[in-house]
Design brief:
The complex is a heterodimer of chains A (about 350) and B (about 120). Chain A is of the alpha+beta class and about 350 residues long. Chain A is about 40% helix and about 15% strand. In chain A, a hairpin with a 6-residue loop joins strand 11 and strand 12. Chain A is elongated. In chain A, about 35% of the residues are buried. With about 120 residues, chain B is mainly beta. Chain B has no helices and ten strands. Classes of the chains: A alpha+beta (about 350), B mainly beta (about 120). The interface between A and B is large, with 41 and 32 residues. Strand 13 of chain A pairs parallel with strand 1 of chain B, so a sheet runs across the interface.
């Protein structure tokens, strides 16, 4: 019974995790490895399920795939019975049993923690949503705890990098991975400038800080149709938050109007003089605890670009407000080097 | 040595006397990477990178280092060792002498998230 991982095994755990993350986030533009995918499908249908090899239909996007399936289902004489349940019964259960028979729960938990958060939860389909559990058992294969032929074959199929697949008796619809995935520092899907997930055919999905956002927010922001009235009347605070992010600080301030509260000059250690201004809206807003929006305005010494950064509304002093966004106290906010 | 305090774009830094206890050595990585613009702040040269509680630290050796703002297309693995200035994206580079440094990415208050979020530039 394995009760503890060596330092080398702990490092290998991260390597295996990153290999799977990179397969999705860096190798996505290569598309599905069709040779690997078709080898895997042949094994899955002919060897495992004892069925004829199905026809494979590659789709450029999720919506394109669903539309294609809908068309097939309306076509007489096409059998679209799903095969997934029998695949899972054959592969998933046996792999799990052989690992858990050899590994203590605490070891399993620590490995799962390292991959589960980053890769996501698995679903019942072949594709990226299986990267979590497959990478988990991949690690145990690497450290020789798991040696399961079905898992090896199944892993090849998953490594082909199909984003998702819908499997039926006679057809498989495989979705190519998105060509663009944009995330924030917290690894949440996030793109205030457009789609956070985009497929080859141009379809995709908008996210702000991991929250799905309707396309109209971006369309209206692009055409200048987000008005103060629209913003104020919007009841969904997730959408208001998205508007705040998509418009950006400058447009939000222009939209809502703001007045100058305080202005201060900072003489930096290198002799630069920086003027910072604290601004607030005259109005207060119920959804942010009946507070105004507040910003501090600064100018980039390299580009001359004027920046606005949101600050907490209680500030009345521009220097304290800008320092609150940094690692420095107000009295320390003087730099030797600036660019 | 007096404390050095610097500001490059949305990255701020200061020199420290010592590495904080418990800081773990990590592979070289950008201090900040912006997926929208492809711009990144990187510390190159005679430098080892460390991390503790999500904060980045660097130990700069006797050959010095340079904090650079570059486009990722102008950066290869070999660039980690150089103290020469790479093509500047927006913000000019800063040579840093031997010492220990702490880095911080400027925040922005998001009244909806009600938390301090790192600036996305």
């Amino acid at each position: 019974m394995l009760t503890e991982l060596t330092k080398e095994q702990q490092q290998l755990m991260l390597t295996v995790r990153d290999r799977w993350i990179n397969l999705a986030l860096k190798d996505n533009k290569k598309g599905i490895d069709k040779v690997l995918f078709e080898e895997g499908i042949t094994w899955l249908y002919q060897d495992l399920l004892k069925k004829p090899k199905p026809k494979i239909v590659y789709c450029d996007s999720w919506i394109g795939c669903l539309l294609t399936i809908a068309i097939f289902k309306k076509t007489p004489k096409i059998d679209m019975s799903s095969v997934w349940a029998s695949v899972w019964a054959s592969v998933g259960a046996s792999v799990g049993d052989s690992v858990w028979a050899s590994v203590g729960a605490s070891v399993g938990d620590s490995v799962w923690d390292s991959v589960g958060d980053s890769v996501g939860e698995h679903s019942a389909y072949n594709g990226w949503s299986n990267f979590g559990w497959v990478s988990f058992y991949d690690f145990f294969e690497e450290i020789k705890v798991l040696d399961n032929f079905k898992f090896k074959q199944y892993k090849k199929l998953i490594k082909s990098n199909a984003f998702e697949a819908y499997e039926y008796d006679n057809y498989i619809f495989a979705i190519q991975p998105p060509i663009s995935i944009v995330k924030n520092d917290a690894s949440r899907l996030h793109n205030p400038k457009g789609m956070a997930v985009q497929f080859k055919d141009g379809s995709g999905y908008y996210f702000i800080n991991g929250r799905s956002v309707p396309a109209w927010v971006f369309e209206k922001a692009e055409t200048g149709d987000i008005t103060k009235e629209l913003f104020i009347s919007e009841k969904n605070s997730d959408i208001k938050g998205a508007i705040y992010e998509v418009l950006g600080q400058v447009k939000m301030m222009e939209l809502l109007g703001a007045e100058e509260i305080d202005k201060q000059s900072i003489v930096h250690m290198n002799g630069d003089i920086e003027v910072v201004t604290l601004l607030k809206t005259k109005d207060v807003f119920a959804e942010i605890d009946n507070q105004p929006f507040a910003w501090v305005k600064m100018i980039c010494p390299s580009t001359g670009t004027q920046y606005l950064q949101g600050v907490e509304p209680h500030h009345t002093n521009a220097l304290e407000a800008i320092a609150s966004l940094s690692m420095f106290k107000a009295e320390e906010y003087r730099f030797d080097l600036r660019s | 040595m007096n404390t050095i305090k610097g500001h490059q774009g949305d990255v701020q830094f200061r020199s420290l006397k010592n590495l904080p206890e418990g800081a773990t050595k990590i592979e070289s990585k950008p201090i900040a990477l912006r997926e929208h613009s492809g711009h990144m702040h990187v510390l190159t040269g005679d430098v080892q990178h460390f991390e503790l509680n999500g904060k980045l630290y660097a130990a700069v050796g006797g050959d010095g280092a340079r904090l650079q703002h570059v486009h990722e297309s102008n950066f290869t693995a070999k660039c980690w060792q150089t103290t020469e200035e790479l093509p500047v994206a927006d913000h000019k580079s800063h040579p840093l002498p031997e010492g220990v440094y702490e880095f911080f990415i400027q925040n922005s208050y998001n009244p909806y998230a009600k938390l301090m979020e790192k600036v996305i530039d």
